[in-house]
Please model this.
Amino acid sequence: MVKNYLKNTWDGLFTILIGMKITWKHLFVPAVTLQYPEERAKLPERTRNRLYVNINDCIGCMQCVTACPVNCIDIETIKGTPIDPPGETSNGKKKALWVTKFEIDTAKCCFCQLCVFPCPTECIVMTDVYEYSEWDRDNLIYAYSNLTVEDIKEKQLNFDKFQAEKEAKKIAMAKAKAEAAAKKKAEEETKSEEKSSDDEKKE
Ligand code: SF4
Ligand code: SF4
Model:
């Protein structure tokens, strides 16, 4: 009976020692736990985190939108006009469009980075920001356009005015062309009539 009791006690102690083997071992090796958020792991090269858009360099070409597999980039543009040109990118590329809306819904983004590679001005990039949790999903929509509602209205008005003027010029030119053609035709007809009457007189 006593023998059995002692054996069970020894078995209990032995299994605890076996179970604690790894714990004991780790008392003598350097800790691998990071004390987040005070300590942070070094991110690997080409890590995929939150996107950023340098809107001043965006030409509104939509290549990123086309490449995105989950349609989480939403861009709207208005054509620039000679009286209100959108300017140039930092590397001297002339912009033709005002980017009135540039939103990325990071709640939908799968961090594939496919939008980054086709960008001709390299203005959409992956950052090293990976801590941007939100309680409200709408806060995960990042807006990059720097135009105000008033600016957008103004750009639209400028464009509409430019288009109307262009259309009016086109109509005026077509009218002038038609008038010139009619005048030429009338002159030719007069000349032809005069020639016929001269021929008749000669006969
Ligand atoms: S990383 Fe991928 S999913 Fe996210 S916006 Fe770019 S293309 Fe779309
Ligand atoms: S591909 Fe680049 S330049 Fe073109 S719309 Fe996207 S961010 Fe802008």
Summary: Residues 53, 58-64, 75, 118-121, 123-124 surround iron/sulfur cluster (ligand 2) (CB under 6 Å).
